[in-house]
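Page 37, continued from 36.
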């Protein structure tokens, strides 16, 4: 080929196909059909090149051609990830030839990276003085980067690696993991040993710290906490302070929950100046604008969820906040909304009773009451309203309001449904006040008041990394229980360290962190594990699996915190808590059932020795809370597993994230289909069916049951999985819901069942029709779709998709996408961030020879729907960005 390449230093050299082949060959190490892959990718690359292509464009073009073939075999994703990481290594560490050289470069450059980062004011100065650099450097293992899928590698590069003033990368992934580990071991007696332990777990993707921690740990700005939960009080000074606090917490990359229930209603009198209030809505709009004004870590908008109790007189206006139509000054375009629901309301819905709305100025104590106390006081206010003793109120049917909530949920995915009484009745940290709201992602349940902004610190266990290579058919044999125990206990210690290391610009948050030391250890990869065991998400084995896994995680997390209390002391507010009475999360099921006066329809099986643990926790707990399952929308990508407790969105789909768009193929499904000799014959049909295995006639029913997607599963399965997990969790679960039905009666039944089973919160509702389709192209055999072909009627067009490669990690366009000189036979397509794909002529692509005339097929492009959506996020772009704010 007569093509020249412009190198980074401006010099020019001839294109070297042999060098490219060696790079692809190295990236294919350990994969089957290695030679075939090299030949295929090199030939596809070379028809996209143009004279004067830069070396950066060449690197990215190789990645793109690998990504274009992921639909045929997920192994190409591994090739793409390795190629991307090689570009990162070269930029940060320099050129190398072998794996041994790469290891040596990591170890030789690590101390210098730390020292230069400290000197530049980017890393914590203690990293250079408190650790034995030689021990840390010798533990660095770049081979663990092979655990990263392409989307994980891009996410790390774009979101978490430290960059210099000009945007240049200063870290490679293993430096990043060690930097985070060091940053979380600063307060340990032997920080080097502890850092090595933390590094070993995180670099193996066995557990991951949450997003804010990964961004800031070990840097000069150690804002490591993830979730902040606050309420706005009904006076102008506190409203102004709340805006200020939102600005500072947003700057520090924290996700925020903010209750506005205490703000008086619109039209309520203001005695100080003899005027009337505008109500909470304008203040919410102000904060919504603030979120856009202050970017999170310079990377994206702030993220916040407003909470309001549904007896507030302005609640109907609250429901309209996310509507597209209406006064833009009474809408929130960035902030989310959630409704704080009492048992009293749910009972009135069930009994078809009336529901009354009040002005908080006239009923100020309702926000502090829950359970039977709330019901009694609410009934008194109802009587006072009917007797004319209140200035204003509104009466509606409870079912009418519930349906209005669900209609809003259908149309805007807001407000999320959360249950005030269940949260407060099931709280073990109930001695420090009422819990008035949850957080941005609905998994945090902490009390807060004027003097305390509740703070929680997160990490998540990757369950999929604790499954044996050959899992077998039983839970006991499938899970590496001892490794899971080690991961849980070490993660709790790491989280407890974080509390002493993190900083906050809001004094009330610092105070709450110190007094309560709240942490939220969660899990991800549940569906990944279920699939590997060959079970359906909506099956009793799956329900038993989550039950046993969460019981085990809960027991060891609590035990680890009790051990830390003996080593470091109990948290300040321990006395008077339910912990101090020897209670554990499982005990709150009965408490809630008794106080509600209605049964909680959840399985009560327990398998571990909880009696001995109850005795132990009476002696002290290090942390007010231990467990919470976050959505893990970002760190799940890094871990290469399914987020939180969520099912598979689809088996093949385009995932949109803040780092770009990526084609995802379920590797478990591909593995199972290959084992049955079906993958080659069904993969194109699967693509055309938008990842719906049930549409494939050659796939057996047992496999179809395992690989049902989110909208094919019963919503009651999502509730059952969450209910089994919730009984072991002291906080809550970000429980996404997926519904194909739009029937309001069905939705009333579904969400009522979630309340009946004791769920504390729900998160996004995904309605199937709301998920948009984007157009991509597939190569179609026109003869097969023609009614006259071979005497056959119309048949489905089966073809090879060519338009699914995402943008390379550096953000620069590929050679084809950017080049004005695309070579013959290539095509450039714009839009959606996909790299261009090559339209090959109607030839035998493998040999380059034209097919015989009688076998020649006319190839056309047909547009088909490619399902788009993030497993944890709805379609709206801003909602996608906010969804991964905690993790």
């Amino acid at each position: 080929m007569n093509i020249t390449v412009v190198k980074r230093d401006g010099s020019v050299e001839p294109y070297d196909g042999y060098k490219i082949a060696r790079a692809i060959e190295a990236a294919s190490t350990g994969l089957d059909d290695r030679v075939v892959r090299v030949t295929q990718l090199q030939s596809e690359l070379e028809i996209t090149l143009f004279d004067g292509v830069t070396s950066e464009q060449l690197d990215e073009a190789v990645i793109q051609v690998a990504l274009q073939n992921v639909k045929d075999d997920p192994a190409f994703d591994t090739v793409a990830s390795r190629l991307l990481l090689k570009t990162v290594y070269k930029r940060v560490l320099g050129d190398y030839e072998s794996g041994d050289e790469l290891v040596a470069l990591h170890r030789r450059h690590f101390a210098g990276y730390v020292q230069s980062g400290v000197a530049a004011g980017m890393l914590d100065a203690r990293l250079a003085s408190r650790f034995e650099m030689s021990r840390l450097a010798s533990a660095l293992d770049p081979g663990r980067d092979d655990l990263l899928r392409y989307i994980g590698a891009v996410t790390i590069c774009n979101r978490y690696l430290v960059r210099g003033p000009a945007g240049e990368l200063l870290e490679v992934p293993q430096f990043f993991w060690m930097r985070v580990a060091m940053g979380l071991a600063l307060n340990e007696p032997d920080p080097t040993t502890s850092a090595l332990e933390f590094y070993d777990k995180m670099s193996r993707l066995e557990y991951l710290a949450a997003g804010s921690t990964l961004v800031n740990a070990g840097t000069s700005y150690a804002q490591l906490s993830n979730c902040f939960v606050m309420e706005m009080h009904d006076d102008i000074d506190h409203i102004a302070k709340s805006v200020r606090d939102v600005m500072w917490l947003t700057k520090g990359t924290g996700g925020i929950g903010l209750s506005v229930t205490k703000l008086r209603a619109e039209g309520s009198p203001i005695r100080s100046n003899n005027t009337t209030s505008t109500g909470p809505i304008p203040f919410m709009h102000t904060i919504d604008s603030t979120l856009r004004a202050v970017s999170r870590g310079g990377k994206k908008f702030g993220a916040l969820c407003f909470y309001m109790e549904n007896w507030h007189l302005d609640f109907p206006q609250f429901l309209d906040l996310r509507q597209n139509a209406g006064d833009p000054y009474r809408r929130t375009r960035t902030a989310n909304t959630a409704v704080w629901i009492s048992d009293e309301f749910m009972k009135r819905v069930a009994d078809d009773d009336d529901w009354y709305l009040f002005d908080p100025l006239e009923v100020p104590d309702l926000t502090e009451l829950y359970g039977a106390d709330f019901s009694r006081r609410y009934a008194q206010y109802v009587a006072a309203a009917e007797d004319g003793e209140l200035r204003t109120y509104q009466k509606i049917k409870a079912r009418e309001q519930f349906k209005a909530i669900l209609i809003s949920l259908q149309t805007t995915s807001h407000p999320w449904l959360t249950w005030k009484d269940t949260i407060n009745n099931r709280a073990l940290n109930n001695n420090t006040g009422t819990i008035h709201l949850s957080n941005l992602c609905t998994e945090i349940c902490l009390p807060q008041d004027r003097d305390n902004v509740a703070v929680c610190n997160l990490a998540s266990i990757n369950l999929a990394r604790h499954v044996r290579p050959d899992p077998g058919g039983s839970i006991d044999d499938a899970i590496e229980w001892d490794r899971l125990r080690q991961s849980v206990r070490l993660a709790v210690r790491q989280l407890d360290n974080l509390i002493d290391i993190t900083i906050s610009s809001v004094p009330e948050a610092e105070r709450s962190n110190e007094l309560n030391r709240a942490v939220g250890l969660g899990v991800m990869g549940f569906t990944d594990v279920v699939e590997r065991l060959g079970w359906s998400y909506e099956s009793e084995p799956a329900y038993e699996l989550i039950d046993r896994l969460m019981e085990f995680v809960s027991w060891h997390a609590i035990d680890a915190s009790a051990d830390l209390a003996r080593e470091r002391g109990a948290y300040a507010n321990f006395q008077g808590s339910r912990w101090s009475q020897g209670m554990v999360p499982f005990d709150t099921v009965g408490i809630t059932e008794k106080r509600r006066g209605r049964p909680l329809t959840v399985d009560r099986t327990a398998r571990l020795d909880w009696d001995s643990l109850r005795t132990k926790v009476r002696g002290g707990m290090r942390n007010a809370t231990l467990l919470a399952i976050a959505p893990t929308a970002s760190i799940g990508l890094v871990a290469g597993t399914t987020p939180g407790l969520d099912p598979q969105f689809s088996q093949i789909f385009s995932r949109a994230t803040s780092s770009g768009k990526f084609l995802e193929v379920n590797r478990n499904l591909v593995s199972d289909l290959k084992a049955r000799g079906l993958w080659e014959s069904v993969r194109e049909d699967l693509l055309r069916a938008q990842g719906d295995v049930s549409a494939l006639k050659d796939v057996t029913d047992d496999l179809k049951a395992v690989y049902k997607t989110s909208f094919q599963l019963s919503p009651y399965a999502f509730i059952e999985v969450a209910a089994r997990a919730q009984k072991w969790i002291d906080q809550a679960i970000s429980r996404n819901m997926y519904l194909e039905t739009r029937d309001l009666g069905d939705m009333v039944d579904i969400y009522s069942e979630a309340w009946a089973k004791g769920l504390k919160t729900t998160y996004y509702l995904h309605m199937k029709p709301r998920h948009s389709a984007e157009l991509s192209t597939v190569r179609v055999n026109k003869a097969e779709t023609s009614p006259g072909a071979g005497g056959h009627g119309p048949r489905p067009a089966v073809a090879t998709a060519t338009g699914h490669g995402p943008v390379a990690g550096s953000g620069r366009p590929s050679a084809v996408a950017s080049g004005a000189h695309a070579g013959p036979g290539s095509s450039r397509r714009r839009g959606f961030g996909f790299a261009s794909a090559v339209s090959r002529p109607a030839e035998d692509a493998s040999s380059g020879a034209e097919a015989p005339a009688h076998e020649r097929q006319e190839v056309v492009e047909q547009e088909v729907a490619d399902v788009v959506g993030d497993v944890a996020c709805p379609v709206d772009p801003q909602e996608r960005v906010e969804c991964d704010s905690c993790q």
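Residues 540-568 form the longest helix (29 residues). Flag for discussion at group meeting. Residues 586 and 727 are 5 Å apart (CA to CA).
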